[in-house]
Amino acid sequence: MINIPSTIKISLRALKVNKMRSALTMLGIIIGVGAVITMLAVGRGASQKVSEQIASIGSNLLIILPGATTAGGVRMGAGTQPTLTLGDAEAITKECPSVSDVAPDLSGIAQVVYGNQNWSTGIRGTTPGILRVRDWPLASGRSFTEQDVKSATKVCMLGQTVVENLFGSIDPIGKIVRMKKVPFTVIGILDRKGQSPMGQDQDDVVYIPVTTAQKKLFGTTFPGMVRVIMVKAKTMEDLKPAEKQITDLLKQRHRIRLGQENDFTVRNLTQVMQTAEQATRVMTILLGAIASVSLIVGGIGIMNIMLVSVTERTREIGIRMAIGAKTWDIRLQFIIEALTLSLMGGIIGIVIGLTGSEILSIIAGWPTIVSPLSIFLAFGFSGLVGIFFGFYPAYKASLLNPIEALRYE
Amino acid sequence: MALIEAKEISKVYRLGDINVNALSNVTLSIERGEFVAIMGASGSGKSTFMNIIGCLDKPTAGQYLLDGVAVGNLNRDELAEIRNKKIGFVFQGFNLLPRTSAIENVELPMLYDGFPYQERREKAIETLRIVGLESREHHLPNQLSGGQQQRVAIARALVNKAPIILADEPTGNLDTKTSAEIMELFVRLNRDSNITVILVTHEPDIAAYSRRTIRFLDGRVVSDELKKSARKRAED
């Protein structure tokens, strides 16, 4: 019968006797576990940041750009030809079943004036759908309506940056701002969105009805022109069908003949961002893998010390065997020693990893996120390392011949 | 039935290409409660015989019955269990675990027998008292004299109530006075607790404490004699 608590006690005593050696052996595991946790935290922090940025653009987003036309053999770049209209946007809303929301965009830059303050910002003419397309809630006030779009009302919604620069602590709702001398009533304030994946301040924006932008602010080269149409597909899976439906619809509407190049481009922005996200995920795995190597090296350190320990304690093993220790009594004793080293190293490593991640995010400014899973993983892995690398020395010890072991000097 | 019964035991070692007959056809039996000295020069086979008796080794030929059990057929762990329950070892070099207190050394056999802590402690203290080491329970081996260390070793051999004590040159590292004390202890244990003591020695003085002397030479038993005087001498 194997007495586990006593075996643990025996193992712990052996470790206590060789404090310095135990500490140094543990160091390998400490560094390994610490590195795994820190690296995973860095990777996770990075991918979290990317995910947040992707979410900030809006999910399941398609962007339709005009242009890419060929004029007399000269291929123009995307966006060079103003070919999209408000009618296109309405048609997409009506006829593409995979699309949930559509927001056209006609934008320009204008000076926004309130009282004695002014601020130059991007003015975007759009439809109420923009808030859903970009998953952008209002902080206060209301959105403009389809009715506002139809009648080209002079109302606007302001981004946080604009609010700060023009109003300071004043509540802007109901106030009048002027853009190109046209007075607009502020009806809504957008929630804070933060930076775009490209580092732009997304809160530096004013939304107005698209028709107001067309008729009263920027003018258009032909009626109903918009620069971009943003489309939100119903689900991730609807992105592909939506892309096809929109392409087919616009081809028909723009009378693109077979073989002729489209005068518009449908871009799947989410896909681009997902690639970035995937890249950070790969980076996380890579960092974790590199850190794991140090954990394995730590494990080999344990095995090394355990082998030395078995040789050193040959006589002790002989005594134990003579007194009645069975194969597994001896094995467990050494496995528990190895396991204790690796688990204690694991616990200290977790503490080091947590502090390390914290320090990294403070000093280097990297966002780090320590997930409970990575702690659990690193701890479990260090336990496995202990058992794996402890087993061989333990196995060797258990096979000693008691007579020879007793004679060992 | 005898406690120890060796029937035509042989042990052959291979040293390179040469076969060494450490034991050839040894037959003898030892009854419960005997006090036996095994003598012989080094290489006479007495150590090999002791190893076989102590279930640390198996004979190449012949049969060894310990308390009626044929030991030759048992595996490693079964042998370990027999050693744990039936045999207490006392060595020349004491063989206590270093950096381990006297009481914990004595507890060791019970540890492998699965005794709970409380019982181990009590029995260890009791056994240390029997060998005259009360109040030294928490001393480490290097804080004890040779004689005291050997007493701890004897306590360790006794603690599982093993019927046999195998002592391999137990006084080899001790001075004359301490040797006498240790031998008196063996005599007392043999007499009072009916423990079978088997003693390997090459000193006639030490062998004189026994009641039966078996001499080995070249792997054979050359003499096996009972002495009436031993018991008397011990009682003087």
Summary keywords:
A: 409 residues; alpha+beta; two-stranded antiparallel ribbon; 14 strands; elongated; B: alpha/beta; four-stranded antiparallel sheet
Radius of gyration of chain A: 34 Å
Uncertain segments of chain A are: none
Main sheet overview of chain B: 6 strands, mixed
Strand content of chain B: 25-35%
Mean pLDDT of chain B: 90
Supply the number of helical segments of chain A.
13
Largest sheet: spatial strand order of chain A: 5-6-11-8-10-9
Number of helices of chain B: 8
Task: Report, as a whole number of angstroms, the end-to-end distance of chain B.
Answer: 32 Å
Q: What assembly state would you assign to the polypeptide chains in this entry?
A: heterodimer
Number of strands of chain B: 10
Task: Report the strand count of chain A.
Answer: 14
Low-confidence stretches of chain B: none
Radius of gyration of chain B: 18 Å
Largest interface: A-B, 24 and 29 residues
Query: What is the string of SSEs of chain B from the N terminus onward?
Result: EEEHEEHEHHHEHEHEEH
H/E element order of chain A: HHEEEEHEEHEHEHEEEHEEHEHHHHH
Task: Write a short abstract of this structure.
Chain A has helices spanning 4-17, 19-57, 86-95, 130-133, 146-150, 160-167, 210-217, 239-253, 269-312, 314-323, 327-363, 372-398, 402-407, and strands at 61-66, 70-71, 74-75, 84-85, 99-114, 117-126, 138-141, 155-158, 176-179, 182-190, 205-209, 225-226, 228-233, 264-268. Chain A is α+β, with helices and mostly antiparallel strands.
Please characterize this protein's 3D structure.
The complex is a heterodimer of chains A (409) and B (236). Chain A is an alpha+beta fold and 409 residues long. Helices cover 56% and strands 19% of the residues of chain A. Chain A has helices at residues 4-17, 19-57, 86-95, 130-133, 146-150, 160-167, 210-217, 239-253, 269-312, 314-323, 327-363, 372-398, 402-407; strands spanning 61-66, 70-71, 74-75, 84-85, 99-114, 117-126, 138-141, 155-158, 176-179, 182-190, 205-209, 225-226, 228-233, 264-268. A 6-stranded mixed barrel of chain A has the order 5-6-11-8-10-9. The model of chain A has no long low-confidence stretch (mean pLDDT 86). With 236 residues, chain B is α/β, with parallel strands linked by helices. Chain B has helices at residues 46-53, 76-86, 102-111, 117-130, 146-158, 176-193, 204-207, 229-235, and strands at 4-15, 18-30, 35-39, 61-66, 69-70, 87-90, 164-168, 196-200, 212-217, 220-226. In chain B, the strands form 2 sheets. A 6-stranded mixed sheet of chain B has the order 6-7-8-3-9-10, sandwiched between helices. In chain B, strands 2-1-4-5 form a 4-stranded antiparallel sheet, with helices on one face. In chain B, strand 4 and strand 5 form a beta hairpin. The longest helix of chain B has 18 residues, at 176-193. The radius of gyration of chain B is 18 Å and the shape is globular. The two termini of chain B are 32 Å apart. The mean pLDDT of chain B is 90. At the A-B interface, helix 1, helix 10 and helix 13 of A face helix 2 and helix 3 of B.
